[in-house]
Specification:
The complex is a heterodimer of chains A (89) and B (451). Chain A is α+β, with helices and mostly antiparallel strands and 89 residues long. Helices cover 37% and strands 37% of the residues of chain A. Chain B is 43% helix and 17% strand. Classes of the chains: A alpha+beta (89), B alpha/beta (451).
Chain lengths: 89, 451
């Protein structure tokens, strides 16, 4: 299963490093990363393979959200199918 | 990878515009539980519901977390209980209490199906069930009731209409100390759908499979936000925008429905393409109509805007889902919609306008608070009018009005939670008593010569 991680908020030092460290810690493989500044907001999107994740994906999603709160950013890990189903016919 | 804009659009819909899946409703047939001994029948019902729905709530919560989309309700609809009463006899309230126990065990927030279908006449069990509705609703918290009193094929059962006026009143009277909550859980239908996932009118029709998953989507906030981006678009643009937005919303519903069905090992039934509002700010159907250009919902032009909205939602939704059913349309429940509440409070929205609106959308006069001294005959008159609109137009209509016992026009009744609050609305009180007490049936309408 693949998931999309989104990170939105004010740009600060170490965002990429902290999010990728969290992925590595749980054996989540990052496949693709894109980042941009949209309307003055830092916005990073990662496509990750979570099939070998060491904890259940629901727990990983909770950790992502908690990490976001800690860094004062909005961080979410969601199954990629929700985006596929909404934007691809 | 999907492009950044699309990903952010989805996230924004969920976080800022209140996109959610309103309900995953498991439909369970109780026909296999019928027994001539009511206690045996109740035991079988409890066992079957607890077995089929054991993992319903947990599965819903897991999907919610994995896909990042809130799923507000996990619910159950069952075979109309009048059919079980027909086999067992006895006090129907025992069934209500059994369903309540099952609801608490599996953790769902409503079970719908304390119902009877009497559009053409009363069969065994129907009258006993209908008479027990006020008590059943007063003694349970998680049970919803509905009665179908008319259809395009059968006409309108006016004996049932007369009875339901009294039942609605009685349901309010015996729950007066609990904010008249009884009638908020009771719907009187014409052309009731058998696969509706939404409460209070959900039941599992006799033509359905043994167990199915039906999903109701929502998202008025998303539609309003999309229209906000085209302030100068013409009406064709408005319709196109609603259609595209409805497509996206429904795709999420389809995804959740298929995933839930797969994980629970039961067939996927339908996705109900409805815009279901909540009293939360930014989750209002009335505000969509206002975004189209009305000063306030209820102004002249409201029916046209609603017709456009309802039709565009269906056009967008139909292609997004493999099976569409249920009520499928915009809901206009007054007490559950911030914009409707505001319009009713300042008098822009009247019950007569709401009645006209129900001719072009699902589902009917919904969550309308009426004066506490309204007679049973006037309530029956409201039901008859609404059923006539449904019968003639081959669509579902319904009445869920709440007589606010001890309150009068201008007072407010507050149910709390998603049922919301609202002002007591003015009614025309001229008496239809003689018409209502004639009894009999309104014959089924002709299906050609449509003018």
């Amino acid at each position: 299963m693949r998931a999309i991680l989104t990170v939105v908020g004010h740009d600060t030092v170490g965002i990429l490093s902290k999010v990728s460290a969290m992925c590595a810690e749980h054996n989540v493989n990052i496949i693709e990363v894109s980042q941009s500044i949209l309307q003055d907001m830092f916005c990073m999107i990662m496509l990750a393979d979570v099939s070998q994740c060491t904890i259940p994906f629901t727990a990983f999603a909770d950790k992502a959200q908690a990490l976001g709160e800690e860094m004062n950013l909005s961080v979410h890990a969601m199954h990629e199918d929700i985006f596929n189903s909404m934007h691809r016919v | 990878m999907i492009n950044t804009q699309d990903i952010l659009e989805t996230i924004n819909m969920i976080r800022a515009e209140n996109l959610d899946i309103r309900t995953i409703t498991m439909g369970i047939s109780l026909l296999s539980c019928a027994d001539s001994d009511i206690h045996m029948s109740c035991d079988k019902i409890y066992e079957k519901i607890c077995r089929q729905a054991e993992h319903l709530v947990q599965t819903g919560e897991n999907i919610e977390k994995e896909y990042g989309i809130p799923i507000i309700h996990k619910r159950i609809s069952v075979t109309p209980i009048s059919m079980l009463v027909a086999a067992s006899g006895g006090d129907p309230v025992l069934y209500a209490k059994t369903l309540e126990r099952a609801a608490q065990t599996v953790g769902v927030n409503f079970i719908g199906g304390y119902s009877a279908l009497v559009q053409k006449g009363f069969a065994a069990g129907d009258e006993a069930l209908i008479q027990s509705i006020p008590e059943a609703l007063a003694e349970t918290e998680h049970i919803c009731s509905s009665v179908n009193i008319g259809s395009t094929k059968a006409g309108i059962n006016m004996d049932a209409v007369a009875t339901m006026g009294q039942i609605v009143r009685k349901a309010a009277e015996i729950t007066a100390d609990k904010g008249c909550i009884g009638p908020a859980k009771l719907v009187v239908f014409c052309n009731a759908p058998e696969d509706n996932p939404f409460m209070a009118g959900a039941f599992h029709g006799a033509g359905e499979a043994d167990c199915v998953i039906n999903v109701g989507v929502s998202g008025p906030g998303v539609v309003r936000a999309a229209l906000e981006k085209i302030p100068d678009g013409n009406i064709t643009d408005v319709a196109d925008t609603v259609k595209k937005t409805a497509f996206k919303i429904t795709r999420v519903g389809q995804l959740v429905a298929k995933e839930a069905a797969k994980r629970l090992g039961v067939p996927f039934g339908i996705v109900d393409l409805s815009l279901a509002p909540t009293p939360a700010v930014g989750d209002s159907v009335a505000h969509i109509l206002e975004e189209m250009g009305l000063e306030q919902c209820g102004a002249h032009g409201t029916t046209a805007c609603l017709a456009l909205l309802n039709d565009a939602v269906k056009k967008g939704g139909v292609m997004a889902s493999s099976h569409v059913g249920g009520l499928s349309g915009a809901f206009i429940p007054v007490s559950e919609d911030a914009g409707m509440i505001a319009a009713a409070e300042n008098g822009t929205l009247s019950i007569e306008k709401l009645e006209a609106m129900t001719a072009v959308c699902s589902v009917g006069l919904d969550m309308i608070i009426i004066p506490g001294d309204t007679s049973a005959e006037v309530i029956s008159g409201i039901i008859a009018d609404e059923a006539a609109i449904g019968m003639i137009n081959s669509k579902t209509t319904a009445v869920r009005v709440i007589p606010a016992i001890g309150k009068n026009i201008g007072d407010t009744l507050n149910f709390g939670g998603l049922l919301g609050y609202g002002p007591v609305m003015k009614l025309n009180t001229a008496s239809p008593a003689k018409f209502i007490h004639r009894g009999g049936r309104i014959p089924a309408p002709i299906q050609s010569l449509k003018n």
